[in-house]
Amino acid sequence: MAIAVSALALTACQATNPENVISIDRAQGAEGNIASLTQVIANNPNDAEAYNVRGSAYGRAGEFQDALKDFNTAIRLNPNFYQAYANRALIYRGMGDLAAASNDYNKALQINPRYDVAYIGRGNMYREAGQANNAFNDYNRAINLDTTDPRAYNNRGLIYQKRGQHKQAIEDFSKSISLSPSAPLPYNNRGLSYLALGDQENAFTDINKALQLDKNIAEAWVNQGLIYEQRGETGKARNAYARAAQLDPKYQPAKDGLARVRG
């Protein structure tokens, strides 16, 4: 058990970059969709919502400057467009301008204090900055507003997990899974908390489920390797660690696991 617990902080899935959190279908970042949205704007040049949607599509495509221009226009056309402020905050986060992102989240919440998406986005920003308590408070606010966004529960669960409060973490990961059963990361994260509590069977089931949903999660392969290693199944552990290292050659837990089983 010592191996798994010591690796816990390293193998939880922490992804919260803008590509993961802009709430718009990924397909809308495709060139064809941006072209169709551009035609909508050409026909309705004063439609703030159209600029907001195209800005989100640009954000999905990684074209942050174009996204900023569209969100700026949306806000100019509708100064109370709190969704556009929150979306622009995501772009600022992606560009590393946390001060501007914070200002936009605060503005969105000033306009609409019940906007759960802004609490979650600001919470993610706080968590990435190492301000876990502020992040925890924002996730709580979103959850108290009866959010149906699974990220609020998954990300609060990560904070519980880091604090060693694994029963609470499992509850949050389970809620996140119930809201989005096809998302792999909460399964991996819940598996880690099961592992920390000594429930290897449920941990193994969850980690394998995460890999069934997405075979490209290096962290989940390492976690699977940890369990195989605990079981004394060295060959299977080696294969899992090797797969993680193939996916992410710089991922230290994968390299450490390979070193142990080779030794």
Overview of this protein structure:
By secondary structure, the chain is mostly helical. The protein has a domain at 1-14 and 146-263: Tetratricopeptide repeat domain (Serine Threonine Protein Phosphatase 5, Tetratricopeptide repeat, Alpha Horseshoe), CATH 1.25.40. 76% of the residues lie in helices and 0% in strands. It has 16 helices and no strands. The longest helix is centred in the first third of the chain and has 14 residues, at 64-77. It is elongated. The chain starts with a helix and ends with a helix. This is Tetratricopeptide repeat protein.
Provide key terms for this protein.
mainly alpha, Serine Threonine Protein Phosphatase 5, Tetratricopeptide repeat
The name of the CATH topology of the domain at 1-14 and 146-263 is Serine Threonine Protein Phosphatase 5, Tetratricopeptide repeat
Overall structural class, as computed from helix and strand content, comes to mainly alpha
Order of helices and strands: HHHHHHHHHHHHHHHH
- Give the N-to-C terminal Cα separation: 19 Å
Q: Return the CATH class of the domain at 1-14 and 146-263.
A: Mainly Alpha
CATH H level of the domain at 1-14 and 146-263: which superfamily? Tetratricopeptide repeat domain
Sheet with the most strands, sense and barrel status:
none
Under the CATH scheme, which architecture of the domain at 1-14 and 146-263 would be assigned? Alpha Horseshoe
Q: Whole-number radius of gyration? A: 20 Å
Envelope shape? elongated
| Helix content, binned percent | over 70%
Contiguous runs where pLDDT drops below 50 for at least 5 residues: 1-10, 15-29
Number of strands: 0
- Give the averaged pLDDT, no decimals: 90
Give me the number of helical elements. 16
